[in-house]
Amino acid sequence: MSTIIITHEDFLHHDTGPGHPERPDRIRAVWMALEQEPFAALPRREAPPATPDQLKAVHLPAYVDMVLEALDEGRAARLDPDTVLSPGSRGAVLRAAGAVCAGVDAVVAGEASTVFCAVRPCGHHAEQARPMGFCVFNNVAVGMAHARNRHGIQRIACVDFDVHHGNGTQAMFYDDGDALFASTHQSPLYPGTGAESERGRYGTIINVPLAPGSATDAFMAGVERRILPALDAFKPELLFISAGFDAHADDPLAGLELEGEDFARVTRALVDVARRHCGGRIVSVLEGGYDLAGLADGCMAHVRELMAA
Question: What is the DSSP string of 226-257?
Fold first, then answer.
């Protein structure tokens, strides 16, 4: 089995405006990176739009209805100071979440061991009824709920190595003993959550805050000493990754010092976990990454290791 790439042309049409870091050039950079060898031959699939029911599995219905109304009307809207909708956003916003559901379907059906969802806008900051940090719907959380509701997969895990803490994903699964959420992230930094003391009702939240300037040693120590043992004890049936590449040393929005090989290291370790516990099945979802060269570097390192699952 191979790795499948799920993406869509609609991701170009989400227009965040001049100077916004989460811009269409990000997805162009990812596509160009994955056109190179050894990725060029990987199967590509078009991301379907998520359904209202899929979105309402993790978001409050009134919030989903409000966003869908704005998207259907095709109007520009500012949902919060950082998060916007444009007349072309409908396809991107719905397909970003739908890609993850389609990725779940593919790995459960045995069509691939791993899936990389090359999507935008990112999603891990979006809470049940609140957009945040460029995120409208929580793409990975929608996919995690889909794994349960469509396929009966109960024990699900998500590892988030975006430089910003995935507050939305954590909040959605904070009281869920059958969901493990683990995050490495710079602290202090937006959104201000992700302290080690945030453990969840059942101890299934694992936060590894990293000081500004942290590089390979601190990052991998947190992964190897805290996240990997927690995953082995939890034994997930399906593993998700919130794959943000803004911890790259060249990223303009943060201050960690990771390089492409660091994203390869963590992905390699997560592939090993997936082999031990869930038949190698991983659904990875693009989150942040705002230096285009660093984003491409991280994506190539990450997908190369996913291909080895």
Answer: IIHHHHHHH--SEEEEEE--TTBTT-TT----
Q: How far apart are alpha carbons 276 and 236 in whole angstroms?
A: 10
Query: What are 59-76's pLDDT values in tens digits?
Result: 999 999 999 999 999 989
CATH code for residues 3-306: 3.40.800.20
Cβ burial of 132 (10 Å; 0-12, 13-18, 19+) is buried
pTM listed for this prediction: 0.98
Catalytic residue of the set 125, 146, 165, 248: 125
Cβ-contact 73, 239 below 8 angstroms: no
Rounded percentage of the chain residues whose pLDDT exceeds 90: 98
pLDDT, one tens digit per residue, over 130-160 is 999 999 999 999 999 999 999 999 999 999 9
Contacting residues for 203 by C-beta, under 8 A, at least 6 apart: none
CA–CA distance from 96 to each of 61, 128, 170, 242, 301 (Å)?
A: 18, 17, 19, 13, 22
Whole-number pLDDT of residue 43:
97
- Cα angle 185, 94, 77; round to 5: 85
Q: What type of residue sits at position 20?
A: H
Q: Which two structure tokens, joined as six digits, stand for 296?
A: 């491409």
Q: How high is the mean pLDDT in each 10-residue block of the chain (309 residues)?
A: 94 97 98 96 97 98 97 94 97 99 98 98 98 98 98 98 98 98 98 98 98 98 98 98 98 98 98 98 98 98 95
What lies within 8 Å, CB to CB, of 81 at 6+ separation is none
165 is catalytic: no
